Amino acid sequence: MWFCVCVCPSVMASAMEEFQVTVHTLPAPTSGTYSILWLTLIGSEVWSEVALGRVVLVRLRLEARMGFPDLDWHCRGVEVRRLCDRQEEEAGLHHQGAEHFPCSRWLRSVDGDVELRNGDLCLFNSETVQTLKDHRLKELHTKQQHIRWRTFAEGVPHCVDMTSLKELGPNLSYTRQSPGINLQYLRGFPERAESWSSFTELETMFSHNGSQNTVAKYVQAHWSEDWFFGYQCLNGCNPLMVRQTRLLPPNLSINSDILCPFLPDGSSLDQELERGSIFLLDYEMLEGVPANVINGKQQYLAAPLVLLHLNQQGELKPIAIQLQQAPGPQNPVFLPSDPGPDWLLAKTWVRCSDFQCHQLSSHFLRTHLLGEVCCTATLRQLPEVHPLHQLLMPHIKTTLQINIQARGSLLAANGVFDKDSELQSWITEIYTHGFLQLPHSGCPQSFQTKPELCQFVTMVIYCCSALHAAVNFSQVDFDLWMPNCPAYMTHPPPQTKGMLTEEDILSILPDVNSTCSLLITLSLLSQPAADYAVFSSGAPRRLVEKVQAELRAISDDITDRNKKLELPY
Fold it and tell me: pLDDT tens digit string along 63-75?
């Protein structure tokens, strides 16, 4: 839709000034509105019915129309073109080019006046028009009143002070794509607070929800194999735990003689350590963490130590598993030579512990909480016209909604740098509310050089994009077959060997309803947002297109390598 807006003449204006205004609505269902739209142009010289000078702001306001639904409206932007007056026409002058005022947000009648500026990005000290300086300060003041900090738990990064998506509003919320599993075939299962009766029953349920997922099918076929256990340490949804080690942990009750059968002929543990072929998984962070009560039954956690060996075939295989940190007679070290059910259960316990560390540390703390801190600080301290705001928001915007939902459900108890005051306020908020002013955290308290800024911003973008994608979007692939990654165990870790059958393992795994709840949750978490924010100004778009071209080349290389792999990377 478009409007022709005329600015009336007055004693201060020599002629009538006319503008052609085009208002763009997002071309998608439910994006339009019945409401009346009021539009005001604000110029660089004055704001009144006289010559405006250059139009620097466009003010929009929705007014509900009586008798019609008061619908939100998604405005893509406004184009303003100043039309030539008679003197200009006589002089042979033509229409000036249209100036674009991007919006890309939902407007509501309750919002009152919403002011848009053109898509040019700049720092505060580069502003030359007082009206724009005032608008910039007003924007931050308004956001700081709406978006505040609070402490969710002592010792962890602060979070946004909101408890519902209604408080968040439509412009910081997002829509997920459809679930990755067929919810139709889960009907009836969520009501069963009991163990799975057999692996056959579990396989039947999986066949209706995972048969189209080639990675999940591969996981089901190979989850019990040692090489695939090691494969997931590097290529699964939590590749952050495995470490190369050249010294054995002092609390791991093992010696070289016991491990010799699992090492190359003629080699010893000391030689393999020196060679760099020994790797360690240490889940010490789970030591002493109390487990939950689910379906009226106490659950259990372990804090395992795992040694892995990188063999001459390039396979990373587990060679020793100790399920608790403190060595002792009731905490045996499990070996590949143990009875099959014992060794499989030990690996399953490790996968359970890995699930806990993955969700709470690798996933939620390292990506979601850090992303929320940076998003909140960005909204409070960097106006939309600041280049860093435009650079960061596509990567961090979605963290507020998912974290609010997580706290309400999953976590519920039942030179230029000195002059850029906005930039310094931004990093101060991150240091204060994200890293709790801890000097040893490594978070800068201020920026002094461009390399410092580039390094920190790169880290933020990496954590909220590449790292988050690695630990989030593959969850359904590797966790859909529940025995590969159980969320909890219904019995304590075994204290002896040789007493298990494969059916005993099934009784230790999560109940039917818990399995279904987990699958639904992971499926939702693994779906990307359907409404992704994009860059609006020309210069960032050109830089993004350059980076995307480089990423496409990398993607093509990965695609070529994947053709030679049984399980694509």
Answer: 999 989 898 999 9
